[in-house]
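for the writeup, i need someone to sanity check this before i put it in the appendix. the sequnce is what the collaborator sent (i think, or maybe the updated version? ugh). structure was predicted straight from it, no edits. if anything looks off just tell me and ill rerun, i have time this weekend
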Amino acid sequence: MSFFSINKSFKGGVHPDEHKDLTENSAFEIMPYPTEVILPLSQHIGKPSKVLVKKRDLVKSGQVIAEPDGFISSIIHSPITGKIKDIGKTASVGGRPQEAVTIVAEGEDEIVFMEPLDAESITSEMIIERVKEAGIVGQGGAAFPTYVKLMPPKDKNIECIIINGAECEPYLTRDYRYMVERTKDLIVGIKLIMRALGVKRGIIGIEDNKPEAIRMLKEATIPHPEIKVEVLKTKYPQGAEKMLIKVAVNKEVPPGKLPLDVGVVIQNIRTAISVYDAVVKGEPQFTAALTVSGFGITTPKNLIVRVGTTIQQVLDYCGGTNDDARKVIVGGPMMGVAQYDMSAPVQKATSGLLVLTEPEMKHSQETNCLRCGACVDVCALNLIPKDLAKFSKAGKWDEAEALGVTVCMECGTCSYNCPANIPLVQWIRLGKQRVINIQRSKQNVS
């Protein structure tokens, strides 16, 4: 039962078992300094960063080791003090080998901070430049370079920002801990983002399963009437951009368009904290904040770790996996990626590591489609998942495109709700990738 008035929601969606109780009361711990890190050059949407170092170079924590290669790209800083061991392809959380820089710790940790700036007097241009210098990328999942989102095209009239505090994926409590542990810093970070964009209205969207965070944020925003806390019904995928915009400001983002096309910019809780740290503390983004949870891990925790720390190192710090552990997922259980190589490194936007046991996993036998419409009922984007999957499976790309396969956000609600246990989202993801490739090839020809 909620302690707050909530009426705002969206059509469709599901409510999986949350399991947030495993870590919601666990304050952040700072994981000990790793002896070696692996830094993929592509930890963000856009072009991989361009390496500035070579083998055997000595680097310090916070030192820039890779620069943006194009507008949509990001700076990468060394997370440890040590020596460049290698530059080459290594395992990644995405499953494909990626070009990366490997650094071995050497000597005492020396951190290179940027000059702290005055949060009250800093200009919009200075905020954007500092966010770029700090290498901040979005923490909501896509890892879009944040400075780019703070520079919308001149013809886009941005009316407000929405801070995504929904954290609707089961198990994950990273953003919740930031809301209760660094409430005042979060408000300052939000105001810095608002100033960078030149907007006077901010909204924090938060699900009603976080009453303590709601209480603290409501109290913290009393002196700041320009920032409103919007309490939302707990339902997945409430934190998706289009859903959040619909329930917070009652605007719909048309297919193929972006939030800025309806006058909105969305940022994540952790992103706002990172902006605060970069401006007020002069701290580059060389750490990741993540939840380690699931019934397959010995001691669930919320951690601050140096970027590039391997999955195995993080699991070991949490006591290792239990005998009944069956799967490790990076991210949440709905949209995360299952891992096969525990030497893959934590990246800037890694929000969680889940170690699941057999009872937590869905292992039912797939049957023929029952044509029950259960997938249609829960699709928040009003798509017909069963048909999108059918056309994708049959290689009928034109039909899949016509039905809106590229609109799908791959949230997984259809697969979760399918009584026939059809891997709908996996087939739709395949179709989406093929259709996008076909569209790009046509553009190149023309």
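The two ends are 57 Å apart (CA to CA). The longest strand covers residues 82-90.
thx in advance!!
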